[in-house]
Specification:
Elements lengths: L2 E10 L6 E10 L2 E7 H7 L5 E12 L1 E6 L9 H7 L2 H17 L2 E6 L7 H10 L6 E4 L5 E2 L10 E2 L2 H14 L4 E4 L19 H13 L4 E7 H10 L3 E9 L2 E2 L3 H9 L3 E3 L6 H8 L1 H16 L4 E2 L14 H10 L4 H8 L1 H6 L16 E5 L12 E6 L2 E4 L1
Parallel strand pairs: 1-4, 5-6, 6-7, 8-9, 10-11, 11-12, 12-14, 14-15
Antiparallel strand pairs: 1-2, 2-3, 4-16, 12-13, 16-17, 17-18
The chain binds zinc ion.
């Protein structure tokens, strides 16, 4: 299949306030070549071009998950599972998870930590069309302190030379970006606490500079308020989690937030589709504090991007819309949520060829039954998924 003209009740070209009613998108050889009203494109496009008519449906940019771990199984103990898995079996499981994400309408994922850089050959198989899956941006092994968060993935560093060597190794393995564990994390209870910084500010700056030498940006896992401050000062591209933790609770800092906005550092406030269970475990007081921080960041115009942390316990692959519903529960508008899932995520990931539907862009798009600007659940009713112009679902 090469050229196809897709028509639906509406086309959300992106950002989500840009809508064409009774619209069409023309796709040719992996690229969008025209976007307009159905009336004008139906007459201007040659009758020999195949038509895909989708009454009642919406065409929108493919969705982006900025935080996944294809190497983790979403079970209760992903660490043992990943540590003991046979490489061949692990690679097959990762391919299967990628396919589940694509079926959910996710056409781009950023993998923020794998084993043995196994996302790199999977990325190649998907690019060449031998495997079905979203476009992958791979971080490979996250940099972490000795005994620190996710050290079992192979990225432990102590000295400046270790940092330079690990970034060189990741770049040589084909990494698209560098991930750093700037604070502790819940998956690694033996390491630093979630609020504790794992690196000195100077080391974080070294990582950002060193990554830049290879043309790579840095994504920083940071739960602690101190770690968040250090990452913002160091100039990372995205802050993952951003939960403002301290030794005794949480402390939100509007000044750090202001600098984040000023420097266009995005926040990936990961939640899984099972966020209700997570909030129950947190308890009402901490859940309200978490909601309050997100509201304050939103009021300050922080660029939020979408991430599920798929692969960690309870974060299933393909439950992307469940994550978006968390933001609806905090009164984000549906247009804001769609932008988070598409244009804002593409921008933060440095992708200029996806996230909106316009001539010259990669044909990463989905067709869903219904209107996601009035009903988020419509995003679960996937009719078709195109990735780089290939019709991969239906
Ligand atoms: Zn993660």
């Amino acid at each position: 299949m090469n050229e196809v003209l897709i028509t639906a009740d509406r086309v959300i070209i992106g950002p989500a306030d840009q809508v064409i009613d009774d619209g069409s998108v023309l796709v040719d050889d992996g690229v969008i070549t025209a976007v307009g009203t159905a009336a004008e494109l139906d007459t201007s496009v040659d009758v020999s071009v195949s038509r895909l008519r989708c009454p009642g449906a919406t065409i929108l940019p493919g969705m982006i998950d900025c935080h996944v771990h294809l190497a983790f199984d979403a079970g209760p103990d992903p660490i043992s599972a990943v540590a003991h898995a046979d490489p061949g079996e692990l690679a097959a499981a990762m391919a299967d998870r990628a396919e589940q994400m694509l079926a959910a309408g996710v056409t781009t994922v950023r993998d923020l930590g794998d084993r043995d850089a196994l996302t790199v050959p999977l990325r190649a198989s998907i690019e060449s069309g031998t495997a079905a899956g979203p476009r992958i941006l791979a971080a490979t092994a996250p940099l972490t302190s000795r005994g620190g968060h996710c050290g079992f993935l192979g990225g432990e560093v102590t000295t400046d030379d270790d940092i330079r060597a690990q970034i060189a190794r990741n770049a040589a393995a084909g990494a698209d970006l560098i991930k750093v564990m700037a604070s502790g994390g819940s998956l690694t209870p033996s390491g630093p606490r979630m609020w504790e910084p794992q690196f000195a500010p100077r080391q974080l700056r070294l990582m950002v500079d060193e990554a830049a030498r290879y043309g790579l940006g840095v994504a920083a896992h940071a739960h602690g308020t101190d770690a968040i401050a250090h990452c913002v000062a160091a100039g990372v591209r995205t802050i993952e989690h951003c939960s403002w933790r301290t030794a005794d609770g949480t402390v939100y800092d509007p000044e750090i937030t202001r600098r984040m906005v000023e420097n266009d550092i995005a926040v990936c406030r990961c939640v899984s589709g099972d966020w209700r269970g997570f909030l129950d475990k947190l308890g009402p007081e901490r859940a309200e504090a978490m909601a309050g921080h997100i509201r304050k960041m939103r009021e300050a115009d922080v660029r939020f991007i979408a991430g599920t942390d798929a692969g960690v316990p309870g974060a299933r692959f393909g439950d992307y819309v469940g994550m978006l519903e968390f933001f609806a529960s905090l009164d984000f508008t549906l247009a804001e949520i769609l932008d988070m899932a598409t244009t804002n995520s593409a921008h933060a990931l440095g992708l200029t060829d996806t996230g909106v539907l316009a001539p010259g862009m990669r044909a990463d798009l989905i067709v869903i039954d219904g209107n996601p600007l009035t009903e988020l659940d419509a995003l679960r009713r996937i009719q078709h998924v195109f990735t780089a112009g290939r019709l991969v679902i239906k």
